[in-house]
Amino acid sequence: MRTAVVLIPGDGIGPSIADATVRVLAAAGAEIDWDVRLAGLAALAAHENPMPDSTLEAIRRTGVALKGPLETPVGEGYRSVNVALRKTFDLYANVRPAHVIVRGGRFDTVDIVLVRENTEGLYSGAEHYIKVGDDPRAAAESVAIITRTGSERVIRYAFDYAVAHGRRKVTLVHKANILKYSQGLFLEVGRRIAAEFEPRGIAFEDRIVDAMAMNLVLHPEVFDVIVTTNLFGDILSDEISGLVGGLGLAPGANIGVHAAIFEAVHGTAPDLAGKGVANPSALILAACMMLDHLGDGARADRIRAALEATIRAGHQVTRDLGGTATTEAFTDAVVAALRPPASATSDAGGRRLAGSRDRRG
Ligand code: NAD
C-alpha cells in the first residue's frame, strides 16, 4: 500500500540531499507518495512565512514528514522553525542512533541510540530579563521545566525502544545531585519505569552528565540506549556523532503521538550549498528510520546495508568522508549497491520504533 509522506527539501544543501534520498528510496522500491512542501527560507521567499499553514496542515494530514535542514531567518520575530515544529506537533522524543561504519579507528564498537526529551527542560521557552535599577537587562532567567508526564513518556519510549530493538541496557543521564527537584524528578520517574522493565531483560543505570561526557569518549562501547533531558541530549548527541564520523552520518527522528518528523542532524551547510558535494547519508539514514516507523523495516535494512557498503568501499565517498565524489556520484554508488529483496514478499518488515539496525536475531 502506498503511503503519503510530506517532504520538506529545506534550505542550503537540503534540496540536493533530498533529491538523493528520494532517488535511493525509489530505487529500493519504497511505496511513497511525496507531498513536497516548503518551510524555512524557501517558504519565506514564496509565502512570506517560514512555516506556512499549508505545510503544517499537510503534516497534520499525513502524520509523517521527511525534512531537510532549514535556515531560520535572522532577526527579531522569527523563532526557530525546527523548535516550532517540535512544539506544534508535540514531538516529545528525539531519537539519534549512532554506530561506527568504517572500522579501524579509535571507536570500533560504538553503537548507541540517544533518546532526548524534546519539548521541556531549558528549551521550554520560559525566559525573561530582570530589571535591576535602571538596567532592564541586569539579569536573565531561563526556567527548566520538567514534568512527570513529559519524563514518563520519553523514558518509556526509550525502554520500549530497547525492547523492540533487542537492546540490553538503558542509561539515564541527569544532574540530580545539584538540580534536586527538576533533574531529581526525571531520575525518580526513570527508576520506577526501569523496575517495570527489569523482568523483560533491560538493565538500567544512571549517570551524572559531567561524568557521562567523559565516559563517552573513554569507553563509548559500554553504552547502549541513553535517555536524557533536552539540553543534555542536545550536547551529548553531537558528542556521540563525533565519535562515529561526524554530522554527515547522523540521522534523527522526532516522535510524537500524532506525527513524526525525520531529519538529518546537520544544518544547511552554507559553505557547500550549490556545489553538489554534500554527503546525503544523514538524510538517507533518517529516511530509513522513517521506513522503520512506517512498518517497512526490511527495506530500511537493505538501504542501510547499501549505504554502509558504499562508505566502507570508499571509492565513491564525499569529501567529508575523505573522498572526492559528488553527491550524485555517491548516490549512484548507493543505488548500485542495493541488493534485491530476498523474496518478493520479504520486504514488508513489522512495525518498529524508528531507529538504527535491529539487534534481534
Ligand atoms: P551545519 O551543520 O550546516 O554545518 C557544520 C559543518 O558541517 C560545515 O562545515 C558543513 O559543511 C558540514 N556539513 C554539514 N552537513 C554536511 C553534509 N551533509 N555533508 C558534508 N558536510 C556537512 O551547521 P551550521 O553551519 O552551524 O548551521 C548552518 C545553518 O543551518 C544555520 O542557519 C542553522 O540555523 C541551520 N541548522 C539547521 C538545522 C536543522 O534544520 N535541523 C540544524 C542545525 C543547523
Helices and strands in order, then pairings?
Blueprint: E1 3-8, H1 14-27, E2 32-36, H2 41-47, H3 53-62, E3 64-67, H4 81-88, E4 93-99, E5 111-117, E6 127-132, E7 135-142, H5 148-164, E8 169-174, H6 182-197, E9 203-208, H7 209-218, E10 225-228, H8 230-243, E11 251-255, E12 260-264, H9 281-293, H10 297-313, H11 327-337
Parallel strand pairs: 1-2, 1-3, 3-12, 5-10, 8-9, 8-10
Antiparallel strand pairs: 4-5, 4-11, 6-7, 11-12
Helix pairs in contact: 1-9, 1-11, 5-6, 7-8, 9-10, 10-11
The structure holds nicotinamide-adenine-dinucleotide.
Describe the model:
Mean pLDDT is 91; it is low at 345-351. The chain has 361 residues and is an alpha/beta fold. It has helices at residues 14-27, 41-47, 53-62, 81-88, 148-164, 182-197, 209-218, 230-243, 281-293, 297-313, 327-337, and strands at residues 3-8, 32-36, 64-67, 93-99, 111-117, 127-132, 135-142, 169-174, 203-208, 225-228, 251-255, 260-264. The protein has eleven helices and twelve strands. The longest helix is centred in the middle third of the chain and has 17 residues, at 148-164. The site of nicotinamide-adenine-dinucleotide has 21 residues, from loops.
